[in-house]
């Protein structure tokens, strides 16, 4: 697609739409499925999954974006967004592991 404000008039990927689809629609759908499958019974699982999936979606969408002009590409073609997403993946993975190691709380039984 050609953006009207771009003086170079080059074809570019609509990375904003990719980000909206990955970081919005896909992330919401995955988390909604997790909730329906009982992920709320494990405290921290939804938060860890959100952080990790968001970071992965961010890295995927960064492949189609132009890097910031003041930074450019950093290590071997990586952008700042990709590098900042790596700690998020690590934190998300730690939260997910902690949630799976904890025992799920027993269901509350009401006495009549």
Explain how this protein is built:
The structure is a single chain. This protein has 112 residues and is an all-alpha fold. It has one domain. The protein is 55% helix and 0% strand. The chain starts with 14 loop residues before the first helix and ends in an 11-residue tail after the last helix.
Helix content: 55-70%
What fraction strand? under 5%
Straight-line distance between termini: 65 Å
User: Residue ranges: pLDDT <50 for 5 or more in a row?
Assistant: none
Mean pLDDT: 81
How is the main sheet built?
none
Backbone structural class: mainly alpha
How many β strands by DSSP? 0
Question: Which structural traits does this protein have?
Answer:
112 residues, mainly alpha, 55% helix, 0% strand
Short précis:
With 112 residues, the chain is mainly alpha-helical. It contains three helices and no strands. The chain starts with 14 loop residues before the first helix and ends in an 11-residue tail after the last helix.
């Amino acid at each position: 697609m050609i953006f009207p404000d771009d003086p170079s008039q080059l074809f570019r990927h609509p990375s904003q739409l990719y980000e909206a689809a990955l970081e919005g629609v896909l992330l919401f759908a995955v988390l909604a499925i997790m909730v329906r499958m009982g992920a709320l019974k494990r405290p921290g699982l939804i938060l860890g999954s959100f952080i990790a999936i968001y970071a992965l979606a961010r890295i995927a969408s960064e492949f189609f974006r132009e890097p910031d002009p003041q930074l450019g590409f950093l290590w071997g073609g990586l952008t700042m967004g990709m590098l900042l997403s790596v700690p998020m993946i690590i934190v998300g993975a730690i939260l997910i592991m902690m949630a799976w190691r904890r025992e799920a709380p027993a269901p509350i039984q009401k006495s009549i």
